[in-house]
Specification:
The complex is a heterodimer of chains A (about 375) and B (about 290). By secondary structure, chain A is α/β, with parallel strands linked by helices. Helix content of chain A is about 40%, strand content about 20%. Chain A has helices spanning about 10-20, 35-45, 60-70, 80-95, 120-125, 140-155, 210-245, 270-280, 300-305, 325-335, 355-365; strands spanning about 5-10, 25, 50-55, 75-80, 105-110, 135, 165-170, 175-180, 250-255, 260-265, 285-290, 295, 310-315, 340-345. In chain A, helix 8 (about 270-280) crosses helix 11. Chain B is an alpha/beta fold and about 290 residues long. Helix content of chain B is about 25%, strand content about 25%. Chain B has helices at about 15-30, 120-125, 135-145, 155-165, 170-180, 240, 265-270, 280-285, and strands at about 1-10, 30-40, 45-55, 70-75, 95, 110-115, 130, 135, 185-190, 225-230, 250, 255, 275-280. In chain B, helix 1 packs across helix 4 (about 155-165) and helix 4 runs antiparallel to helix 5. The radius of gyration of chain B is 20 Å and the shape is globular. The chains are: A alpha/beta (about 375), B alpha/beta (about 290). At the A-B interface, strand 8 and helix 8 of A face helix 1 and strand 2 of B.
């Protein structure tokens, strides 16, 4: 049984951590993710969430505490955003190489200065090489489901990697919508670590590794990402059978059967893009949508199959200065030897510019790469 | 069916809560709903907007509402700086917290339904005050339900009653009062009001200097206007010392700078001679 509640993305993430049985939460508040931390501390205080809540002095320490907790055999959770995520950077690498399956909620926000608290995927995308699995959500129900699914995936013996569940700051973090608060008992049991720190049987963890062994460790992490992709399909199916919700982990397609012009994007604007596709189809444009959910691992093969012979418009809500849209660049290299008609970059929604269905329409009909105003 | 609602208010009046409450009412009546606040300066008194979408189909829009069916204006003075009529669909509805009558509104649409209610008055009467300032969101929702919207006042009362605990009863009373007292009228548009145009700023380096913000002078944040009675004032400077905005000037006598006074009323509390009184801004402004 479950109840349907009107929740913000942040509240949703907190409830998901509770129902996914996270047992240690170490976090430091930052706009726009603070309500996750507030809600969790309230749930712990009320005795509804059985977890140890650790107040830390920084995001760097928050991740360090999560790594410690995970290594000691607990399911660990944290949440951050923007500058907080940037401050965590060193520990993000650490969590991957230590093979600690931590799950973290990230409310995507721009990085200053030019102080900006609004949505921009640049904070998480600039962590793409840390080895974390990265999911980008498009509505609150998806945030809820993905956090549980991320634990299932991350903790699998074949994977053992940390995972970020990202959602656009304010656009999702502060927007309320109905969320089915399913209990995950059938899907996710208590964390059973493959190994854990144990005072009775002492061993070192994260010790010095000579070059050949280090290369093996890194190669194994790459292999784990490959295996994670395969496992995602299985988890999607299992989740659907249990709860009847098709929550994608790899990607979501919309009206792709006969599509000629395809929007490829990630995050909340991937939901708005559905409205844009409908609107374009009314104007006799054969539009379709591929909303990428998993940016790491990057599902090259799946994208190649879907985008063959299409004209592809890549909408990035982030910019890698000196190079271009991060998603555009990844996709361009993935499709390098495929018979794709054209692949066209678009930069939208930077620093929280509202992205409407008309933004997509204008971007497709016009040549401009950057859309720097609200198209209402 | 897709009904979109835009709320205009100021930080502290409860626009964000109102927008979420409306989504909850719609959801509990079997509709899909979404409540999307926009956050800028998260400060008491700063202009705030929030949006609610209600639909009988799943809602995929994740952008703000630019062409609302209904606009709720929680602040009586915000119309001076914000074009609350912008983008409102022909035949749409404006629900205004005002002491004016529906015919006094100026807009460029051909016809709009105007629902006028003195929600501030109702809030004061029902003691809906937070930190001494009236919170008008629940009575405004009561008035909103007089619009063409398939939501029932009993459901709103139920949700508010449950959610607000001890304060529930007062809020429910205010909702009913606003619903009953609101004047509803179809009004013909009589032209366009002029608004200060937003200055286009070219950003090359992230540097700036202090200036009047895009929302205009902060005097427009006031619900109440403090007034010094110079017969009683002995110029002890207590108000000058305590004013958080430095909006009390020292000339021969203490003087309130009404351009920047936000109406927090700290001065009225700290005055040992009780020489500073206050009145509602809407009445003082006339």
């Amino acid at each position: 049984m479950y109840e349907v509640k009107i929740l913000t993305g942040n509240e949703t993430a907190a409830y998901a951590a509770m129902n996914s049985k996270a047992r240690v939460v170490a976090a430091y508040p930052i706009t726009p993710v603070t309500p996750v931390v507030e809600t969790i501390s309230k749930l712990v205080e009320e005795g509804r969430m059985h977890a140890k809540f650790i107040r830390v002095e920084s995001e760097h320490s928050a991740m360090a505490a999560c790594i410690g907790a995970s290594a000691a055999g607990s399911r660990a959770f944290t949440a951050t955003s923007s500058h907080g995520l940037a401050y965590m950077h060193e520990m993000l690498h650490w969590a991957t190489n230590a093979r600690t399956p931590i799950v973290m909620a990230v409310a995507n926000r721009a990085i200053g200065p030019g102080w900006n608290i609004w949505a921009d995927l640049g904070d998480a995308l600039s962590q793409r090489d840390t080895g974390w699995i990265q999911f980008y959500c498009s509505n609150n129900q998806e945030i809820y489901d993905t956090i549980a699914m991320a634990y299932k995936l991350a903790e699998d013996r074949k994977v053992l990697l940390p995972a970020m569940v990202c959602y656009d700051g304010f656009v999702l973090s502060h927007t309320s919508m109905p969320v089915e608060l399913t209990e995950f008992d059938d899907f996710l049991s208590e964390y059973e670590p493959v190994w854990k720190l144990d005072a009775e049987n002492p061993f070192t963890h994260g010790n010095i590794l000579p070059p050949e062994d280090f290369a093996e460790l890194r190669h194994n992490i790459q292999r784990s990402h490959d295996r994670a992709l395969k496992l995602m399909k299985k988890i999607e199916e299992e989740f659907f059978e249990l709860y009847g919700r098709r929550t994608p982990l790899i990607l979501e397609e919309y009206k792709m059967e006969d599509a000629e012009k395809v929007i490829v994007t990630m995050g909340a604007i991937g939901s708005e893009a559905k409205v844009a596709v409908d609107s374009l189809r009314e104007k006799k444009v054969k539009a379709g949508l591929v909303r990428l959910k998993s940016f790491r691992p990057f599902p090259e093969k799946e994208l190649r199959n879907l985008l063959e012979d299409k004209k592809v418009y890549v909408f990035d809500r982030a910019i890698s200065p000196g190079s271009g849209g991060p998603l555009y660049n990844e996709l361009k290299s993935a499709l390098a030897f495929s018979p794709v008609k054209r692949i066209i970059p678009k930069i939208v929604g930077i620093g929280g510019i509202d992205v409407t269905k008309r933004t997509f329409e204008r971007a497709i009909f016009e040549r401009k790469v950057w859309i720097k105003e609200v198209v209402s | 069916m897709l009904i979109s609602v835009r709320f205009h208010g100021r930080g502290g009046q409860g626009a964000v809560t109102a927008s979420k409450l409306l989504a909850e009412v719609a959801n509990s009546m079997g509709y899909y709903s979404q409540s999307m606040p926009f956050f800028g300066a998260e400060r008491r008194g700063a202009p705030v907007i929030s949006f609610t979408r209600i639909s009988d189909e799943p809602i995929y829009e994740m952008s703000q509402v630019y062409h609302p069916n209904i606009v709720v204006v929680l602040d009586p003075l915000i119309m001076k700086v914000v074009d609350v009529f912008a983008g409102v669909k022909e035949g749409g509805t404006i629900v205004a917290n005002t002491t004016k009558t529906p015919d006094e509104f100026v807009f460029s649409q051909r016809y709009l339904n105007i629902i006028a209610v003195d929600a501030t008055g109702i809030a004061i009467k029902n003691d809906l005050l937070v930190a001494g300032l009236p919170v008008v969101n629940t009575p405004m929702l009561g008035a909103l339900l007089r619009a063409q919207i398939p939501l029932e006042i009993e459901v709103l009362e139920g949700i508010v009653g449950k959610k607000f605990g001890e304060e529930g009863e007062k809020n429910v009373k205010a909702i009913r009062e606003a619903y009953d007292l609101a004047t509803v009228k179809l009004v013909r548009g009589s032209g366009k009001r002029k608004y200060p145009r937003k200055k286009k700023i070219k950003v090359e380096f992230p540097i700036s200097t202090p200036s009047e913000g895009v929302a205009g002078k902060t005097k427009l944040w006031r619900d109440f206007r403090p007034k010094i009675d110079y017969e009683k004032c002995n110029n002890c400077l207590n108000c000058w010392l305590h004013c958080p905005e430095s909006a009390i000037r020292l000339n021969e006598h203490v003087e309130i700078d009404y351009d920047y006074c936000k109406g927090c009323l700290v001065c009225t509390t700290v005055c040992p001679k009780k020489a500073i009184t206050f009145e509602r801004e809407v009445f003082a402004d006339v």
